[in-house]
Each structure stands twice: as C-alpha cells, then as structure tokens.
C-alpha cells in the first residue's frame, strides 16, 4: 500500500453531486469503465444531468446513448425521486442510513450506494466488499482470497478505508 500511495495522487472523493453520481453509477453497473464513460458522455451531450432534464427526455433518446431499457427506467425513477425530494438531505445521514435510503430506489443496490458515499459524499471509511475490482486488486497486492479475507483486510485501514479502496482501484487503472 505504501508504494501505491507514493505512486499516485491523493484520492479524489466527494467531488460530484449526489444525483449526478447516482446517474453515473447506474450507467456504470456491469460495464467496463471505458464503456460506461463513453455512454455517460453521450448522455451528457444530449442533456444536462439534472432531474428536470432527464425526466423530460424520451426513452428512445436515452436508449440511443447506449443505455439499456432497464437502466433508462432506473434513471427516470431516480430523477423522479430527486424531484420529489427523496434525495434531499441525504448528506446528513449516517453511512448506514444513507445506504438504506438509496437502496429503496429501483436500480440502486448496496454497491451503487457505497459509490455515492465515496464519490459524492466524500465519506472516508467505506469498504465496498462487493466490488470485484477491489477484490482482484487485494488479491494481487495481498493474496486475499474471498470476501471474508477482504473484510478482514479492511479492518487495518479503519477509519480511512475509502482511501485504501481508492489506492487499490489505482492498480486497475495502471494496467
């Protein structure tokens, strides 16, 4: 980990609004970073990433960006939730409360909620145990086998597990 820290800039966390991050995270689900980035850029080219703008887009316009019908439904639902105030004050909730609130949204699971905690809310002690990339990186760096060993590894990084996760992700980026 010391070598990773020395070789990379400090973690970039908490830099995007919650709604923007939720839309980006839903698009990213089950896709490579390159594919997700391309698709997200296409969406940004046709609309602002705001609840009003995305609610106003028709299904086919969003589909043409490369977004599946199910994800379009999730994005529309998240947009409506934002307009209804469901996402208001999420930054004031504890990590567990914020996750519980977000997973009530269709298409948002624990992994997505954890990404929001990290990249939108800037929470410093999140350890995404369901992230396949982190598990691969932990295996490569520490020989970790499986989620239980990965969870145990995370204990050594409390209260800065987000930072450790960010550096582990950097292994994937350097391939």
Which features would summarize this protein structure in a list?
single chain; about 180 residues; mainly alpha; 11 helices; globular
Overall mean pLDDT score?
A: 93
**Count of separate DSSP helical elements:** 11
Percentage beta strand: under 5%
Uncertain residue ranges: none
Strand-pairing-aware structural class:
mainly alpha
CA-CA gap between termini: 17 Å
Shape: globular
What is the percent of helical residues?
55-70%
The topology string of helices and strands comes to: HHHHHHHHHHH
Tally of strands: 0
Please state the CA-atom Rg, rounded to the nearest Å: 17 Å
Main beta sheet: strand number and arrangement?
none
Task: Outline the structure in words.
With 175 residues, the chain is an all-alpha fold. Helices cover 62% and strands 0% of the residues. The protein is built from eleven helices and no strands. The protein has helices at residues 2-7, 18-28, 33-46, 51-56, 59-63, 69-84, 95-102, 110-119, 132-142, 147-155, 161-173. The longest helix is centred in the middle third of the chain and has 16 residues, at 69-84. The chain is globular. The mean pLDDT is 93.
Reconstruct the topology from this structure:
Elements lengths: L1 H6 L10 H11 L4 H14 L4 H6 L2 H5 L5 H16 L10 H8 L7 H10 L12 H11 L4 H9 L5 H13 L2
Helix pairs in contact: 2-6, 2-8, 7-8, 9-11
């Amino acid at each position: 980990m010391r070598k990773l820290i020395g070789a990379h800039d400090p973690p970039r966390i908490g830099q995007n609004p919650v709604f923007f991050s939720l839309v980006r995270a839903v698009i990213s689900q089950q896709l490579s970073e390159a594919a997700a980035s391309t698709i997200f850029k296409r969406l940004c080219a046709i609309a602002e990433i705001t609840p009003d703008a995305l609610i106003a887009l028709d299904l086919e316009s969003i589909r043409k960006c490369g977004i599946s019908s199910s994800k379009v439904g999730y994005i529309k639902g998240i947009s409506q939730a934002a307009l209804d105030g469901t996402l208001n004050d999420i930054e004031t909730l504890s990590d567990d409360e914020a996750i519980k609130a977000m997973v009530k949204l269709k298409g948002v699971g624990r992994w997505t909620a954890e990404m929001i905690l990290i990249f939108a809310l800037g929470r410093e002690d999140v350890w995404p145990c369901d992230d396949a990339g982190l598990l691969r990186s932990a295996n490569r760096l520490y020989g970790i086998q499986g989620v239980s060993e990965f969870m145990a590894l995370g204990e050594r990084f409390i209260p800065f597990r987000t930072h450790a996760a960010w550096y582990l992700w950097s292994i994937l980026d350097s391939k």
